[in-house]
Amino acid sequence: MSLKLTNNQIAWRAAQDIADGAYVNLGIGFPEKVAQYQPPGRQAIFHTENGILDFGESPAPGSEDWDLINAGKKAVTLKPGAAFFHHADSFAMVRGGHLDVAILGAYEVAENGDLANWSTGPRGVPAVGGAMDLVHGAKRVAVITDHVTKDGRPKLVKRCSLPLTGVGCVTRVYTSLAVIDIEGGRFVLREKLPSVSLEELQALTGAELVVPGAIADLVVPEL
Amino acid sequence: MDKTVADLATAVAGIEDGMSVMIGGFGGAGSPIELVHALIDRHLATGHPRNLTVINNNAGNGHVGLAALIETGMVAKLICSFPRSADPVVFTERYLAGEIELELVPQGTLAERIRAGGAGIPAFYTPTGFGTDLARGKAVAEFDGRSYVQERWLKADVALVKAERADRHGNLTYRAAARNFNPLMCMAATETIVQASHVVEAGAIDPEQVVTPGIFVQKVVRVANPAQEEDLNRANASYPEVAA
C-alpha cells in the first residue's frame, strides 16, 4: 500500500460508515466522491441544498436538464422516490436535525471540533454558500481531508487560524493517514495506516492524539 | 380577477431607482432571465432604474441575466450567499474595484430571512454562523444550553420570479429544482412579478398542486420558452447582444 490514501480511498472509507437509508449531504467537490463508494446493498438518500432529496448520478453529456442541478450547479438525475422542495424547507432539513450525516472538506479542523473550510483570508471575493448551515444540525458532521496541506503543514490543529465555518461541530475526521474522532475537545485516534507509525502520525498532527488502547488498521482497497 | 400583464416591459415598468429587488433562482435554475433582461432594456432606454439592491443566492454567471444587470451598472448592492460561478468576472471586477457593496449571508440564513420577511417575523435565532466572522455585531442568545445568532427578516420592494405554470389568480407551480428561492421571494416582496412558461385559466391548476398561492403574486407575464442561463453561457451569449 502507498504511503497515504488517495482522495478516492478516503471517500471509500467515509462511505463505509453511512448506513442504509441514511439521509446524507455531501459538500461540493471532493466529498461528492463518497456517493460512488456505498457498500453493496446499502442506499443512502442524498440531499442537495437547492431542493432535491434522492438525486443520482450525472446524466450523459447532451441530455442535461438545467432545472435539475445540485448545489455545485452540476446536472444530476433523479432516483425513484425523489422529492423537490424550496430553500426554506431544504435548510429546515439541515438545521432541524433531520440529516443523518454531512460530509465536508476542510482547510483546518481543530481538536475542539471547530472547522475552517470557507475562507482562506480577506483577499478576493468572500463566498460561504451553505457551509455554515450544514455544520449545524446534521446528527454527524464528518470531514474528509488530506492529513497535511500541500506544503506539509498539519490540517488537524489545536485551534484554527483561518476564519471559522462553525464552532465545535465536527465529530469525525477521515484523513489520508487515519480515522480520528473528536470527543471532549480531543483528537481520539481510531484507525491508522499500518505503514505509518504512531510517532510519525503525531508529528504530522498539530495537536495531541489520544490513543485509547489498540488502534485498528486503516485498510482500504486499491481504487 | 386577472393578474396577467401584456408583456415583459409592462411587467417591470414600476421598478424605480433605489429599490430592493429579489431575483429568484439558484445559479441558472429558476432564474427569471427574461424579466431581468426587460429591466436592462428599460434602463438602456430611460436611464432607470439604477442604484438597485439585489437579493439572489449568487452574483451572476457570464454576461447574461443577473451578471448583465450588474454589468450594465444598475446594481449598487448585492445580498447573496455565494458570489462565485463558472464565470464570475462581472461581479468580481466591480467588487474588487469597490463599485458594488456585498452583504454575504449563509445560504440557509438567507432563505430563512426571506421566509421570515414574508411571514411577518422580524427576527429569529439560528445556530448558523455562531462564532464566525459573519455573526460579528449580531445579538447572541442561549437556548437550552446552546448559542444562537439573531438574524433579521429580509423584505424587498419587488421580486422577480420564474414559474412553470401560473393561473390568472397568480397561483404557481415550479419545475424541478427551479423552485429553490422563488416561493420564498414571492412572499417577501411588496410586488411579486412572475414570468411563467404557461399561463392558464383559474381552475386549470389542481389546488392540491399549487406551490405558491396567488395571494403572494401581483403580476404574471407569459414567457413561453424561457432561456436557460447555462445554455446561453455555453453559447457565449451576452446581454444586450454585442453587435458583430
From TrEMBL, chain A:
<dbReference type="InterPro" id="IPR004165">
    <property type="entry name" value="CoA_trans_fam_I"/>
</dbReference>
<dbReference type="Pfam" id="PF01144">
    <property type="entry name" value="CoA_trans"/>
</dbReference>
<dbReference type="InterPro" id="IPR012791">
    <property type="entry name" value="3-oxoacid_CoA-transf_B"/>
</dbReference>
<protein>
    <submittedName>
        <fullName>CoA transferase subunit B</fullName>
    </submittedName>
</protein>
<dbReference type="GO" id="GO:0008410">
    <property type="term" value="F:CoA-transferase activity"/>
</dbReference>
<comment type="similarity">
    <text>Belongs to the 3-oxoacid CoA-transferase subunit B family.</text>
</comment>
<keyword id="KW-0808">Transferase</keyword>
<dbReference type="InterPro" id="IPR037171">
    <property type="entry name" value="NagB/RpiA_transferase-like"/>
</dbReference>
UniProtKB/TrEMBL annotation, chain B:
<dbReference type="Pfam" id="PF01144">
    <property type="entry name" value="CoA_trans"/>
</dbReference>
<comment type="similarity">
    <text>Belongs to the 3-oxoacid CoA-transferase subunit A family.</text>
</comment>
<keyword id="KW-0808">Transferase</keyword>
<dbReference type="InterPro" id="IPR012792">
    <property type="entry name" value="3-oxoacid_CoA-transf_A"/>
</dbReference>
<protein>
    <submittedName>
        <fullName>3-oxoacid CoA-transferase subunit A</fullName>
    </submittedName>
</protein>
<dbReference type="InterPro" id="IPR004163">
    <property type="entry name" value="CoA_transf_BS"/>
</dbReference>
<dbReference type="InterPro" id="IPR004165">
    <property type="entry name" value="CoA_trans_fam_I"/>
</dbReference>
<dbReference type="GO" id="GO:0008410">
    <property type="term" value="F:CoA-transferase activity"/>
</dbReference>
<dbReference type="InterPro" id="IPR037171">
    <property type="entry name" value="NagB/RpiA_transferase-like"/>
</dbReference>
